[in-house]
Amino acid sequence: MFVTTVLVLQHLASSKPKMKSDGVNVAGWLQSLAAFTGSLYRKYPSIELRGLLQYIANQLKAGSSVDLVVLSELLAKMAGTEFFEHLSAAQVQAQSGGEALKNEAFPMQQARLLKKPILKLKDALVSSNLTIPLLVLMAQQRAAIIFSTDVSHLKLIGQVYDSCHLTLLQFLSFISQHFTPRSALINMLPTFQQLTSGYNLEPEVVFALLRPVIPYCFTDNIRSVSLESSSSSSSSSSSSSSSSDSNEDLKLSSDDGGTSSTSSNSLAANAVPLNPLVRSLFPESTWNCISPELYTTFWSLSLYDIHVPVEAYNEEIAKQQAILAQIDVEMRVAAASSSSSSSSSSSSSSAQQTPASNAGDQSLAKRRKVHAGIVSRLEAELAEQQANHERVMARIMQAKDSWLASSSRRNDITIMFMQTCLFPRCTFTSDDASYCIKFVHLLHRIKTPWFSTLGFFDKLLRDVAHLLFSCTESEASRLGVFLAESFELLRSWRVSAAVYQEQCEYSPGFLASFSSTRRTTYYDFMRVSIKWHTRLSKALATCLVSTEYMEVRNALTVLSKLTRLFPYLRKGATLVLKNTRKIADEDPRYVLRYPRNHFRCCVLHRSHSQTDRIGT
């Protein structure tokens, strides 16, 4: 079995170029070898894997991220860990639910066949002490790509960055899902200071890694719970895993070699308040605008905590109950058929038919048991998530008054919140993009003192177009998701004057200014909505005629996410369509034609709903 790994490593370490002649795409031979390697280790998980993982770590340490395509295939084939950027409406809703709802929205074929490959991959990472080193090296390489990639083409830099980022997300997802119980992951992780100051990881990566264990490791967090109480219902399983936890006490050494650290450097051994630790991430001027409490609350929560997809749960439960009803009908028909055949046939013939009949009944009973189990899990998971949501909201309500009360620069609150919280997270994953707008809505709903909802959207829609040039294509797509949900929220407030008056007019977030008591009326809101739409239409139209490829491509990517709600004004739609026509007439780049045609078709399809004034 070692020979197979050696052969794979020989091909990976060969002198053949790993990029195509265009310098943009991974060479076909490397893509094929990566796909073969993933399939091979899934089919034969007993093959030695640690050498391959060590090779990937060494390549990352040398500053090369091309071989991450192999790790990505291993995670996808062996563990079924894939990251989807383009989701249906049902899948978007399921993302804020629990594992049972996600499993139904993202069905993984032959999941039971992956149990052994998952265990082998996890064992290879643990036994080689490479779990945290691989993660740290990927995060460091992701941050260095922009500066160290020896090319001038922004498209290539963006694609390399997106590829590294996607593999990092796959690896984070694998760790979160399969390193259980949580004590196993806690014992493995370095401290917060090591991750941020020692390894210089970006805050969004650190919190993505720590988020599953934050409630158990930091005493002042909004989600803080006792690790013992969280596992009281499964005390037997936790006791049986205690011995394995000690074996998984892996830490990254100072030279990233993967050696174990002492227990005094573990996250579990240094349980401290989180709020004082985050102060070192930014200069003191940042904390003059927002508080560490707001910052840690924003980064430690997830969609699961602030939004319960009750409708998605009910739809899936109804779907499963319909399947159960159909199975019950089939079982009654089969029973009636068996009864009639046994009464009309001879005893010898019925004796021959009985085994087949029993097999059919057993198959139906097995199917019924499976779907009944899914219903039970969904109902229990919904109740558990609702209870968690209530606990989180109760703590948020207690803490909200102090989040911005000590701010000495209240006019800069929105800018600093966007810089340190919103933009880094909304471009991290599509889930985080949805989370960001829901968190903003939450700040508005609970009437957070000194948070201006009106000022937030005004600043967002004024400056967002300037961010497009600094985004990769995938980040622009996530930014489009964020903007689409933002426009959906604004549209819900424009439905009628009664809705606006109930949800917005008497909220402190819709005061004209902090020093004024004048409230923004429904008429004022409609006027400012016209200004926002016009401003964004002009900004995106300007991006479309830019001479920079990435600016044009990212503008089309964002517009493709907004077609259902934007451009709403006929004047803005005409301006944007005019500039997309220029792409067709003057731009020779074929790669821009598909997104341009897609956007034009969507806008022209809903041209009947465009108007000269803002409405519903």
Quick rundown:
The chain has 616 residues and is mostly helical. It has helices at residues 2-12, 28-43, 50-61, 68-79, 89-94, 99-105, 115-127, 131-148, 154-178, 182-188, 192-198, 203-210, 214-217, 227-230, 235-240, 242-247, 275-278, 284-287, 292-300, 303-306, 310-344, 347-403, 413-426, 430-445, 453-467, 473-493, 497-505, 522-544, 549-562, 570-586, 593-605.
Rg from alpha-carbon coordinates: 27 Å
Distance between the termini: 65 Å
Give a short account of the largest sheet.
none
Mean pLDDT: 82
| Percentage of residues in DSSP E strands | under 5%
What does this structure look like?
The protein contains 31 helices and no strands. The protein has 616 residues and is mostly helical. 36% of the residues are buried. The longest helix has 57 residues, at 347-403.
How do the helices and strands line up, and which of them pair or pack?
Blueprint: H1 2-12, H2 28-43, H3 50-61, H4 68-79, H5 89-94, H6 99-105, H7 115-127, H8 131-148, H9 154-178, H10 182-188, H11 192-198, H12 203-210, H13 214-217, H14 227-230, H15 235-240, H16 242-247, H17 275-278, H18 284-287, H19 292-300, H20 303-306, H21 310-344, H22 347-403, H23 413-426, H24 430-445, H25 453-467, H26 473-493, H27 497-505, H28 522-544, H29 549-562, H30 570-586, H31 593-605
Helix pairs in contact: 2-4, 3-8, 4-7, 4-9, 8-9, 21-22, 24-26, 25-28, 26-29, 28-29, 28-30, 29-31, 30-31
